[in-house]
Amino acid sequence: MGAPTPHRTDDWWRHAVIYQVYPRSFADGDGDGTGDLAGVRARLPHLAELGVDAVWFTPWYLSPLVDGGYDVADYRTIDPAFGTLAEAEKLIAEARELGIRTIVDIVPNHVSDQHPWFRAALAAGPGSPERDLFHFRPGRGEHGELPPNDWPSQFAGTTWTRVPDGEWYLHLFTPEQPDLNWAHPAVRQEHEDILRFWFERGVAGVRIDSAALLVKDPELADYEEGVDPAPFIDQDELHDIYRSWRAVADEYGGVFVGEVWLPDAERFARYLRPDELHTAFNFNFLTCPWDPERLRRSIDDTLAEHAPVGAPATWVLCNHDVTRTVTRYGREDTAFAFATKAFGTPTDLDLGTRRARAAALLTLALPGSVYLYQGEELGLPEADIPLDRIQDPMHFRSGGTDPGRDGCRVPLPWNADAPHAGFGSQGEPWLPQPSGWSAYARDRQSADPRSMLSLYRQALALRRTAPGFGDGPLTWLAAPDGVLAFARPHGLVCVVNLSDGPVPLPPYDGLLLASGSLDADGTLPADTAVWLRT
Ligand code: GLC
Predict the structure, then answer these.
(1) Among 137, 309, 355, 532, which residue's CB has the most CB atoms within a 10 Å radius?
(2) pLDDT for 277-320, tens place per residue?
(3) How far, in Å, is the centroid of ligand 1 from the Cα of 280?
(4) Mean pLDDT, rounded, of the chain
């Protein structure tokens, strides 16, 4: 491992709160049922008021939207459903004026089957240089009728599709998302050009989708259960790619956040060496159940794995792929796993909401940066989407057993009394909002000091102005069973009660913020967190 980079206080990404916008569901500016850049621009004041430092936009590029935009047909064009490149440039500039940086999402593992490269590859036929940009292979079996290998899909089902001339192509996700061949220099060149294209438009950072999947074992060897890393994940050549990306980012002062799902902490940290990615999402923490031992271990492991490479940790409770926090924490199994998602799981939303409020104070007090997914600040629950309205390919590819990810992608409620809770659509939005959605509307929560929105606003304001937050040391404090208590610099203390009953607080000088009311005798109730100044 390389030597850690010395911490610089102007490294905004070491302590930032980054808000994830799923443009399709954020706000509909033109009323056509789909969220868009006009909607985001109109709502930028909300983000400034909330107090976030940066916004990460999930893909907004030209796309058939088979996988919500993670099937990109052209990286240099904004999908007309969302707006135009000129509008994106305005949005980036307007956000920056409000002190909000922009992070775009690049999907290097695959493109859309409508991307000109893939169309050309199909047309050019077997053995052509066009096909070399992807993974085309003859099949196995007497007539090539069997797929070239047995790799499992990230989305259930097969990873190979046969084209009319008999060859097969690889797609770790849907058939509409053919995997690029990262051993090809043109693929590398193109992505460095795309990075430059967006950095030149003023973006401050890039999220890298499926960042550990790009490189495939050159033999495309069969997958063997238990052999780590698998032939399509975490291949060593990836580090060379990210070193050259880093050199591009450094020219612009841009930063990366990688979507790196890897169980092995040491291998995960390799992506965060000083000349590779700045940060990566903390999926260990995201998937962790609401359990004091497990959370403490996750926090310790996270800090321990980041320390040797000098990278700041990130803290994430939810995103556009996983069950919303208030729902997950209101269930018997509070861990997140794709494999255990099911229809009809009983949920106690009051309990989940209490815990989500406590979890917000926990994560915002930890050292590093925090990701906040749109609607998390409103305490939105996971929605049940009627079967005939589900759009997510994960649902269909599971044979209908997995509810899919649409339940966390429902259009946001802005104004309780407006049609479609003020999302902006004139007709029905692209995904239906469940009944009762207006109760979560931003305007209603703005006026209520006890709302989730008010909690987030206060927490983010304190995090900005009060000393002790962000990057820096964390010291665990002695605490009763089931309670997490830690000190940050400047006497800042966070206490989270995950036990079944109330617990006394340590001595303190000032109560900065509480996720719920303290008991009359000053004890901290179950599933409640506080920030103290000691
Ligand atoms: C990432 C994205 C997810 C997408 C997948 C394929 O996991 O977060 O939404 O479906 O990559 O691009």
Answers:
(1) 355
(2) 999 999 999 999 999 999 999 999 999 999 999 999 999 999 99
(3) 15
(4) 96
